[in-house]
Write a structure and sequence with these properties.
Length: about 375
């Protein structure tokens, strides 16, 4: 609810309407059941007395989906003439004028016809939310801007219809509609997704098993990461309890931290950490702890700079901190960046050090209870 007030001509004060709540149903590909799930939840809301309307729906003539629309009011689309042809788009103004409690909007990433008031359907949704109306919408994972390049590399298909990641992050709720690749293939072969003439080309292209597996993982990871970000933000907003809460917010997305020194095997550690990060589709960091009592020689400084450049080549973030207690600094950075995997090299310790001092590895194991620690052997 907004805290400001609007002054009307009759000197009365009206509180502006609250912003509507946005629930997004996301899936790995067409046919997983996003629209059906959205309709199913909307029908339950209608039974509970909520005023529900259909703003825009694409059933693709699927009988089960069509059946779910029975009894739901449809807002007639707007008509736009373009090149002598008549096109239809969602009628945002009519939806706002109707003032339902909840509106259903399919195909969130859709690009509107030239001549429409807004260029993208998600902008129409933003306008509806600003008018205080709740929205259920659907989208596939390949339409996220941050993933479009990755999806093109995996599938060979260039996605034109995109939505900003901020839309997903701002949503009040994101629901993953998930099925196995095998189930999706069965639906495709049974003609439940596309007409018969499109089945074989789809199997040879977008619906290849390898593509479906990769897209499914993308969808699950993206939503998991989104949940984690919101948990962290919520903890940060609770000022006095932030530290206590952050300790209890577990990381869902993997994060890799490689700890290097002036030892020559540091480059090998970075490469190994980069392989882990690529395999897990995880953010990647490299940490160098500089002892303030030790002045780096030219050779050591060059070594650190080389490690930094290699880290950046692997799209990682290089971190350099100063501290006398290496274990404490590593633990502090790991907790601050919510690291889940730490990569270390074998440390060379004398016989007396092994007897009288605790190893770096054991110190980290005591400090980082929820973090996996990988020890990479030194090359002979």
């Amino acid at each position: 609810m907004y805290s400001s007030y609007t002054v009307c001509s009759n000197s009365t004060y009206l509180r502006p309407p609250r912003r509507g709540k946005h629930k997004i149903f996301i899936g790995m590909a067409p046919g997983v059941g996003k629209t059906y799930r959205m309709l199913d939840e909307a029908c339950r809301q209608k039974k509970d007395g909520i005023d529900v309307v259909l703003g825009w729906l694409e059933t693709h003539d699927r009988p089960e989906t069509d059946a779910k629309t029975q009894g739901l009011e449809v807002i007639p689309p707007s008509k736009i003439e373009q090149g002598g042809l008549i096109f239809t788009e969602m009628n945002t103004d009519a939806i706002i004028a109707r003032q339902p409690q909840l509106v259903l909007v399919d195909e969130l990433a859709h690009i509107n016809i030239p001549g429409a008031e807004r260029n993208r359907r998600y902008q129409d949704v933003e306008t509806i939310l600003a008018a205080g109306i709740d929205v259920f919408s659907t989208v596939n994972i390949q339409h996220l801007e941050s993933l479009c390049h990755q999806v093109t590399q995996m599938t060979g298909i260039v996605v034109q219809e995109l939505i900003p990641d901020s839309l997903l992050e701002a949503a009040d709720q994101v629901v993953v509609v998930d099925v196995t690749p095998e189930t999706l293939e069965e639906r495709l072969l049974e003609g439940k997704i596309y007409p018969t003439r499109k089945i074989e080309p789809s199997i040879q292209n977008f619906f290849r098993r390898s593509n479906l597996v990769a897209l499914r993982e993308l969808a699950l990871r993206q939503v998991a990461d989104n949940i984690e970000k919101k948990e962290i933000q919520q903890a940060a907003r609770l000022n006095s309890h932030a530290k206590a809460l952050s300790a209890n917010v577990y990381c869902i997305h993997e994060r890799i931290l490689v700890c290097i020194s002036c030892e020559p095997n540091s480059v090998r550690l970075i490469r190994r950490g980069a392989i882990f990060a690529d395999y897990m589709n995880a953010p990647f960091y490299v940490l160098f702890v500089n002892n303030p009592d030790h002045f780096l020689t030219k050779v050591e400084a060059l070594h650190v700079e080389t490690c930094k450049q290699i880290c950046q080549e692997f799209k990682g973030e290089f971190l350099q901190v100063s501290g006398q207690n290496v274990a404490q600094e590593i633990a502090r950075v790991a907790k601050s960046y919510r690291i889940t995997q730490v990569v270390l090299g074998q440390t060379r310790r004398s016989k007396w050090q092994m007897i009288f001092t605790e190893s770096l590895i054991h110190q980290l194991m005591r400090s980082l209870h929820q973090t996996d620690i990988h020890i990479i052997s030194s090359e002979k």
